[in-house]
Amino acid sequence: MSSEKLKNKENKEAGIKAFNQDFKKYDQVQKDQNYHLVEDKESDEFDDQYEIKVCDLSKFVSGDKSAKSQFIQDLGSALESIGFAIITGHDVDVSLYQEAQIKIAEIFEKIPLEERLPYKYERYGSVNQGYFPIKETTVIHPDLVEGWVFCRRAFDLGGTNSNSKEYNEKDFWPRSGYEPFFRKIVEAHEGLISPIMQSILTYLGCEPHLYDERLTGTNFGFRLNYYPPISQEDDTSGAGRMLGHEDVDLFTLLPAQEVEGLQVLNRSNNKWIRLNAPPGSIILNTGDYMQRITNDRLPSTTHRVSKPQNKAMNTKPRISLPMAIYVWEDEILEVLPGLDNPKYEPISAVKFHTNITSKYYGDDYAKEVK
To answer: How far apart are CA 111 and CA 133, in angstroms?
Structure first.
């Protein structure tokens, strides 16, 4: 084993016992909460009373003025208090989510590793894109998950695609047929971006259409997560399925999963909430971009994926497909107009994004890519 690989292995093993504050220097927004990256059964406390608010998006899209106002208040208050909400009435065909479970399992279970490795992740713009082998999601913890990140350029989205060359499915996907299917989900989720952002801006007292143009055809990170069955060795190691973190985006759309494990940190009491959303709903959470532009009004809330409480579920894979909504790298993140006493100076999205994610990929990640 090379010295670099050995160092990474040691760092990850240390990460099993690490706290988020060990990596505070990378944060670009205020994060005073202190937590274990992985569930610590001896010291972590759980909040079994808190309920994440359910928000019916159809009230905003097709409801009367009163219904629309109710959705805006429900969503805004949920995000301001904890940074998470459960979205129903979204009009996305939930059968797509059911079929996605099958297709994601196919990709990670039936396509040999040697066919996946040529697509191993590389930085493009701000975002590491491509295939992440198990235990390689970050350099600070051996996450028990395989992942695959597809940004806008990985989809045949016509005039809104960021490619400078003609689209070629083989450049991004290991086999044909997957891109057209997952594109349906991406396009359906894109239809949710404007109403969600307009609701947030209205709640904050800002012009609701302020972000319409920059979020039309914007970049995103569509990630396929495959958490394989947990071996006895990995269970004993103390590693988690995904370390505690805050998303680096405006917000994330996450269809509800079948296998439990998602935990959300309640900053008000530093207790964890086990989030089990209703089938067919979408979990929405705000990220670092949003905390920055809202002057800390809407927090980038900590979450992690832990092992199932029921050990019998360790034999079942867990599958999820979050979609992180970004702005393009050349956009400037600045506190929204009308919010008093801005705490943060304007910063380019690429600098902001890569400075934070250097904690996951190493200090060189923030260097300018020519």
So the answer is: 13
| Percentage of the chain modeled with pLDDT above 70 | 95
Structural domain tally of the chain?
1
Cα 248 from chain centroid (whole Å): 7
330: Cα separation from own chain's centroid: 21
State both tokens at 36. 């274990």
Determine if the pTM surpasses 0.85: yes
Q: 63 forms bridges with which residues in the sheet?
A: none
The answer to whether residues 302 and 265 touch, using CB atoms and an 8 Å cutoff, is: yes
What order of strands is seen across the sheet that includes strand 242-245? Answer: 242-245, 303-305, 262-266, 271-274
pLDDT in tens, 118-145: 999 999 999 999 999 999 999 999 999 9
Helix, strand or coil for residue 85? strand
Q: What are phi and psi of 177, to 5 degrees?
A: 105, -25
Which amino acid, residue 336? L
Check: CB of residue 29 under 8 Å from CB of residue 296. Answer: yes
Identify the CATH number of the domain in which residue 254 sits.
Answer: 2.60.120.330
CA 345 to chain CA centroid, Å, is: 25
Contacts of residue 323, Cβ cutoff 8 Å, sequence gap at least 6: 185, 186, 189, 220, 221, 222, 223, 252, 253, 254
Q: Token match 């670099």: residue?
A: 4
Q: Give the DSSP letter of residue 258.
A: S
Q: Given CA atoms 95, 222, 333, 141 in this order, what sign does their dihedral have?
A: positive
pLDDT exceeds cutoff 60 at 80? yes
| Position 162 pLDDT exceeds 60 | no
Tell me the C-alpha distance between 275 and 294, whole Å.
25
* Paired tokens of 112: 């040999």
| pLDDT band, very low/low/confident/very high, at 369 (cuts 50, 70, 90) | low
Helix (H) or strand (E) holding 59: helix 58-62
- Kindly list the distances between the CA atom of residue 121 and the CA atoms of 40, 91, 117, 147, 254, in Å, as whole numbers in the listed order: 30, 32, 9, 10, 21
Structural domain span for residue 168: 3-366
